[in-house]
Task: inverse folding
């Protein structure tokens, strides 16, 4: 875990842990109840492997979800917010941001008419603006708010990617638990196996409700727009640095009043 950066831990591994927690609990119960042996060793090794595999799956499925959301909402928010037709920012601020990014890319920003005539070419310019901003705002110390919004978006997106696999896994887990109870024959509430299986089933049901009703596409869309807005607002930091500083010891200009 020491080799993980903050983004990977919070935006990839946290969703992986949350998405597979019923299966992890079931494995933990298996390890605690079994004597040390081959089965216990395999189950112990399976926990970190399961989390790693879930983190990789969450990222891949999250990217697919991201592409579908962008297609449904008209494009990447960091692109659409720079368009003349978007009202997230006022016209004067957008004009300033476009001019600044144009100077960094050494490419003229499209005019309003050019954007209307060729929206794809304009969006290509705005996409390069977003890429420049992402590359130059990677420091979480210099841009802590932007980093926090990026983590929130990555967390929600990747967790949404795991939504259906997690629900399917919970269904399989509940069916396995039901099979174990049926095979056992009698259900004794004081029996340790029955208690353990009941805990897994209850957790799987609660987890399924959480994944079904809390992990939603609107939540991801909201986080995406919030992150994109903060990304574009980072232009203010660069613009502030480029303002000419006042020279030390410069004489102050005074205005003398009229004398009678």
Result:
């Amino acid at each position: 875990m020491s080799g993980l950066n903050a983004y990977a831990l919070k935006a990839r591994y946290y969703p992986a842990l949350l998405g597979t927690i019923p299966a992890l609990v079931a494995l933990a119960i298996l390890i605690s109840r079994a004597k040390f042996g081959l089965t216990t060793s395999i189950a112990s090794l399976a926990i970190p492997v399961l989390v790693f595999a879930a983190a990789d799956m969450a990222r891949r499925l999250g990217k697919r979800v991201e592409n579908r959301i962008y297609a449904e909402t008209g494009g990447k928010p960091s692109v659409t917010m720079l368009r003349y037709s978007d009202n997230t920012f006022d016209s004067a601020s957008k004009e300033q941001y476009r001019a600044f990014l144009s100077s960094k890319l050494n490419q003229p920003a499209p005019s309003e008419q050019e954007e209307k005539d060729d929206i794809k070419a304009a969006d290509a310019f705005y996409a390069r603006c977003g890429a420049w901003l992402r590359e130059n705002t990677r420091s979480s110390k210099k841009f802590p708010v932007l980093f926090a919004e990026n983590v929130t978006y990555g967390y929600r997106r990747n967790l949404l990617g795991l939504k259906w696999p997690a629900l399917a896994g919970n269904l399989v887990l509940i069916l396995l638990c039901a099979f174990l109870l049926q095979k056992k024959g009698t259900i004794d509430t004081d029996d340790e196996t029955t208690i353990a299986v009941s805990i897994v089933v209850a957790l799987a049901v609660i987890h399924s409700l959480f994944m079904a009703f809390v992990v939603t596409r609107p939540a991801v869309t909201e986080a995406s727009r919030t992150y994109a807005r903060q990304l574009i607002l980072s232009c203010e930091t660069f613009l502030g640095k480029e303002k000419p500083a006042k020279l030390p010891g410069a004489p102050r200009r005074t205005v003398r009043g009229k004398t009678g």
